[in-house]
Write a structure and sequence with these properties.
The protein contains 10 helices and 16 strands. By secondary structure, the chain is α/β, with parallel strands linked by helices.
Length: 335
């Protein structure tokens, strides 16, 4: 019996993924396309993350299936991210976040690509933060923007070029409890295009003081240490972007914000129901809804919580697969 002719299955390593990664402007377009699709009726399918909770405290493994509905079948995108977060890995010299992204042929469901999802997670998260900044960042006139990054891991590093690109001349203030890591991040920031100056601080609160933009990108930790960043730490008109759930950002910061946005409402509410966002309010809107509504940036504080959605990974992965196919990147695996 003749076997059916299956489409190629391409593997992209982390190096291949970075070689196929689009430039910043295109990443911002892909991220905004995803946020808008999430807010458009019938634009996507995104069930809540399926979660496992391994033994190390605060560890997780998530299955994140997602589908983008195009204009027709051949414009659809289908895939899934399988991602693990183990805060204890840093002690072993291993990445805290690891992942695979799988793409399926939308017409047949047959897998067509598997790729290292670590770099995709980092760059797509930074791009969503960039979309938030582009639409709802603070209005600063006559001086450079002061921005803070709490957390000197992969996510802190991936945000450097986005901050430099969107906030030219930015005065960057950094904190991480690991002095070696934060000094390494400061060195990288100093050579990043668009970054005007860099300062490392001894405490998170010192790093935040007076900042116009605050990104919290800490490793997930014990519940007792969460929600330490209160209103008293923040300037009135700051744009706050927590990408570490409620690790730093206190519920009162979201409650008292002039505008509180999330990347995807149902995912946020599901996480709140299981205790990941204790005492947080309902969001005013999703990022995509606010973009579609041309919501103006209010004068007060803005909080934009990005939990990370698998649809963004799928959109990024499809763009990189097209590049990889043309450039001959990766390995075609035998069926």
């Amino acid at each position: 019996m003749n076997r059916p002719l299956l489409p190629p299955l391409r593997w992209l390593s982390a190096e291949d993924v970075m070689d196929a990664m689009p430039p910043i402007d295109e990443r911002l377009v892909l991220a905004e396309r995803t946020m808008v699709a999430l807010a458009t009726p019938g634009g996507s399918e995104l069930p809540p993350k399926i979660a496992l909770h391994p033994r190390p405290e605060a560890s997780f493994i998530h299955a994140m299936p997602a589908m983008l509905h195009g204009a027709d079948l051949f414009g659809d995108l289908v895939g899934m991210k399988w991602v693990a977060g183990f805060a204890t890995n840093t002690e072993l010299g291993l990445p805290g976040i690891s992942a695979l992204v799988i793409l399926n042929d939308p017409a047949t469901g047959i897998p067509i690509a598997v790729m290292d999802g670590g770099p995709i997670t980092a760059e797509r998260t930074a791009a969503v933060s960039g979309v938030a900044l582009r639409h709802f960042g603070p209005e600063v006139i006559g001086r450079a923007v002061r921005a803070t990054i709490l957390g000197a891991g992969v996510q802190g590093r991936s945000h450097l070029p986005v901050f430099g690109h969107l906030l030219p001349g930015v005065e960057l203030h950094l904190f991480d409890p690991d002095r070696r890591r934060v000094e390494s991040l400061a060195e990288a920031a100093g050579s990043t295009s668009g970054v005007g100056s860099v300062e490392v601080h001894a405490t998170a609160r010192d790093a935040i003081a007076g900042s116009d933009v605050v990104l919290t990108a800490a490793s997930f930790g014990p519940a007792a240490d969460r929600q330490s960043m209160t209103n008293a730490w923040l300037s009135r008109g700051a744009t706050v972007i927590p990408i570490d759930y409620a690790t730093y950002c206190a519920a009162e910061v979201a409650r008292d914000a002039a505008l509180f946005l999330v990347d995807q409402r149902e995912q946020f509410l599901a996480n709140r129901d299981v205790g990941n966002f204790d005492d947080y309010p309902d969001p005013h809107a999703m990022i995509g809804e606010a973009i579609l509504a041309n919501t103006p940036r209010p004068e007060g504080r803005v909080v934009i919580t990005a939990l990370g959605v698998g649809l963004t990974d799928v959109v990024f992965a499809e763009a990189m697969l097209r590049t990889a196919q043309v450039a001959g990147l990766g390995i075609e695996l035998p069926r």
